Amino acid sequence: MTDGPGMTSRLNDGRDPVPFEEWDRPRGEWLLSGECRRPGDRSLLLEMTTRAVFPTVLVFSLYLLLVGHYGPGGGFSAGLVAGLAFVLRYIAGGNADFGAVVSPRAPVVIGSGLAVALVTGLVPAAFGAPVLSTTKLAADVPLFGPVELQTSLFLDVGVYLLIVGVVLDLLRALGDGIERDMDDAGEAL
Amino acid sequence: MTTVLTLPVLLPMLGAAVTVVGSRSAALQRVVGIVVLTAVAVLAAVLLVAADERGPVVAELGGWAAPVGIALVADRLSALLLLVSTLVTLAVLVYAIDQRIADYGRGTASTTFHPMYLMLCAGVSLAYLTGDLFTLFVAFELMLTASYVLITRRTGASRIPAGMTYVTVSLLSSLLFLTAIALVYAATGTVNLADLAERIGTLPGGVQSVLGLMLLVVFGIKAAIVPLHFWLPDSYPNAPGPVAALFAGLLTKVSFYALLRTETLLFSRDKPWTLLLVLAVATMLVGALGALVQNDLNRLLSFLLVSHIGFMLFGLAVFDAAALSGAALYAAHHITVLATLFLVSGLITRRTGTVSLDEMGGLARSSPGLAVLFAIPAMTLAGIPPTAGFVAKLALLQAGAAAGLGPQVVAGVVILASLLTLYALVRVWVRVFWGKPRPPRPDEDPTDEVLVGTARTSMPMYAATAGLVAVSLAIAVFAGPLTVLTGRAGVDLIDRTPYVDAVLGAQEGR
């Protein structure tokens, strides 16, 4: 295995023993794409396919999110599909690529998703309706024509963010984290 | 009022979301936690007053009427327990926050502790307030999943097996719970508790017994009823001080509340329930006798916790209004006193650096304040007049004495178990507080939060513990009005119609 000098120093950044208090906090700068810990593990075919598939899957997940009220889909399944897109990138690029894709911290994504969902549940109370009730908003948008919007979409957006955050957190803690620990211990993956 | 009813669940969840997003600001996390729980306590008090004056408060989520939609219900019993539980979670949070400050300094935030703590509080609120069997399952899962994180985080590697026991047993009981819900739904076609109350009575007797027993086993595991209690003394002592206090105060009592709610609402009985009387005797005696031989302070308290679950079971087993009233009062008293004792145990451990009674001594001289903080809840737990424990036990004994021969015999066991409790606690008192002061043990494993050596304690930690002692004393001072309140709650539980009418009649009133 040949590591460039610059790469080695970069990979060693923040690789001191993890302080117990901060085990769940990302350390240092996120790695950039292309800096694979073991270049021999790269699969060019998978990487190229992923580059094409990744945005497509994300768009598809947004589609599922939007049609969820009347058709198959919804925040949960859309979030899982989006999460799978990130899983694919993780498998193709390993932890290095994963770090490059994700700069927001997973807990922030989870927390904002939960907050969006809860606030959506509480907003109807301000209008005198029961908590968690939904209504249909209709508007005439120029160029698009009439657009109808179920307010439950906002709840779905919250769920979407929550699920994406959970998948990212799982990849970080159980994927990247374990890989890094095994690497540090000199074990084969 | 219906919005107020959803807030005890939604506010802690929102607090959890905010503390996750703001997981780099320790100050924000502290403020959010305390503000949210204070607000929930106020709301719980409002709900209690409303439920007592105008009958059960019902909220239909999303505006869907009860048998179809999910209903939240606050009646006297659930509002009272919600209020007491929230006061306990608030005090324990203050204690935990100050322990964190003492251990890691002001600036250390955590992505897990505060969110999980608030999620657990949301689960507890939901478990008290839900009027739907499946939502009860969701509430338990919310509570237990948060507790899995809290019991295993920041404990040394040697304590992970204890956490594994806890997780495995809890998952098993959840699986059984889900099975029971499936059977209930298959038999009746509904999971709404009020609807079930009307439909389960029409089922064949055998099916009713199976469903009742399954729920008894499910909540029996979660509430640590002998012989399903084995996991509790193994796992709770391995949790850090405030977490153990939180679990000891709340989790088993929420399970007992669920047992009380389902068995009274779904299955009507007109005479004492012999099986549960036997289980109550076993629970009281096994717990109390187990406590006598423990050398580990937290294990001793865990066995006493198990023992006193038996007292509440006795109230449920007698199955009349007076006994259920006693059980409700006992639950309120038990939540506060056990949480207090575990917090005191945490303070003692931080003084002595050990949980072993053999290695302690002379604390009465070196920290008299701690001795007072231990003595009051200890006397309360043993039920010495004029404490809250005495009031609650008196209510149970009076109900038992009036209910025929079986309950009278068990009432005798209640007295015996109280004396054994007193003996166990006197033993703690003699070995921990009397005798020659011993030097504290040094901290051997810095990653272990249970044995923290002689880490610093701060005034707010004592203040939080003292606050809980004050709540417990307040239960004794206001015993009169409280007994009247739980008396009405007991009548409601036997009568069932106020609850059922409030839930199912809600759509007619609109």
The total beta strand count of chain A reads: 2
Q: Gap between N and C termini of chain A, in Å?
A: 15 Å
Largest sheet of chain A: 2 strands, antiparallel
The main β sheet of chain B shows up as:
2 strands, antiparallel
Biggest sheet strand line-up of chain A: 1-2
**Helix and strand pattern of chain B:** HHEEHHHHHHHHHHHHHHHHHH
Domain count of chain B: the total is 1
The helix fraction of chain A, in percent, is: 55-70%
Q: Could you list the spans of chain A in which at least 5 consecutive residues all have pLDDT below 50?
A: 1-34
Based on helices, strands and strand pairing, what is the structural class of chain A? mainly alpha
Which strand order do you get reading across the main beta sheet of chain B?
1-2
Q: What sort of overall outline of chain B do the alpha carbons produce when their principal axes are compared?
A: globular
Poorly predicted segments of chain B: none
Q: What count of helical segments of chain B does DSSP give?
A: 20
The structural domain count of chain A equals: 1
In short:
Chain B: InterPro entries: CPA3_Na-H_Antiporter_D, NADH_UbQ_OxRdtase, ND/Mrp_TM. The complex is a heterodimer of chains A (189) and B (510). Chain A has 189 residues and is mainly α.
